[in-house]
Design a protein that fits this description.
Shape: globular
Distance between the termini: 29 Å
Number of domains: 1
Mean pLDDT: 95
Order of helices and strands: EHHEHHEHEHEEEEEHHEHEE
CATH architecture: Alpha-Beta Barrel
CATH superfamily: Glycoside hydrolase/deacetylase
Largest sheet: 5 strands, parallel
Helix content: 25-40%
Length: 264
């Protein structure tokens, strides 16, 4: 099979417990994500694949050595905003990009908004971003409704848009929540269905999922599987994808124009 896999991770503060009334000090938020990221890097090296990490500037400033290691391993760093709780000003888009570029000494091309919040495309362009992956074209109650958005890569206002992969017809999202809450065999079926239709998959997780988070008071759906068990499931999934002879790419690969994009 000919196809591409854009596997990516939102490297952010582990702040989801705060949403449910359980305050965590920033140091602990950073440490949980760092623990998961280090475990993930070992797996990615073992499997010989390259991925994209959407990183908050806040996390990067506190874990600069980890960020540099990610780059040294050949992965892409993209922006996930200043922090995972942005104040919503356009200046954050430029500042987060500058901070990451100062740390990484490479141009930051991509952006994903925290929690898939709506973002002004012209502000992204003015800040120097080349692609945006802030659209999950499905409906997540209490979060967002992007059912009216295209499911495939497209270009709008001069900015390349790379939505999260969802299945045909029902728009079941292929991401962290479905991965850990449905049988792996079913997730593979959905993946193959989507891959055959679009020729690629854009799938995301969070490094903090690969740490031990069972003790935190967050919804069961978010921690149904975590740590080593989740890592083993991801490894099995990656191995299955590799058996299909697909190519794992960083998201900035889309900018190489190997794939035509729809102009809205």
């Amino acid at each position: 099979m000919i196809g591409k896999i854009y596997l990516n991770f939102d490297l952010e503060e582990f702040d989801i417990p705060c949403e449910y009334g359980h305050y965590l000090k920033e140091k602990e938020q950073i440490q949980v994500s760092n623990e998961g990221a280090e475990t993930l890097l070992e797996l990615l090296q073992k499997k010989g694949i390259k991925v994209t990490f959407f990183t908050t500037a806040s996390f990067a400033l506190k874990k600069t050595e980890l960020i540099k290691t990610i780059l040294a391993f050949g992965h892409e760093i993209a922006s996930h905003g200043l922090s995972h709780n942005p104040i919503g000003k356009d200046e954050e888009l430029h500042l987060s990009k500058k901070i990451l570029e100062d740390i990484c000494s490479v141009q930051i091309l991509g952006y994903r908004s925290p929690r898939f919040r709506a973002v002004n495309y012209q502000s992204l362009i003015c800040s120097g971003y080349k692609y945006n992956s802030s659209i999950n074209p499905t409906w997540l109650p209490g979060r967002y409704n992007y059912l009216s958005f295209p499911r495939k890569i497209f270009c709008e206002q001069g900015l390349v848009q790379i939505p999260i992969s969802t299945t045909p017809l029902f728009r079941i999202p292929l991401c962290w929540l479905s991965f850990k809450n449905i049988p792996l065999s079913l997730f593979k079926t959905f993946s193959l269905w989507t891959l055959q239709e679009k020729g690629y998959l854009n799938i995301f997780f969070h490094p903090w999922e690969f740490a031990n988070i069972q003790q935190y008071p967050i919804p069961r759906i978010a921690k149904a599987i975590d740590g080593l068990v989740l890592l083993q499931r991801l490894e099995a999934y990656i191995s299955w994808l590799q058996s299909l002879e697909v190519k794992f790419c960083t998201l900035n690969d889309v900018l190489q124009k190997e794939r035509p994009v729809e102009q809205l």
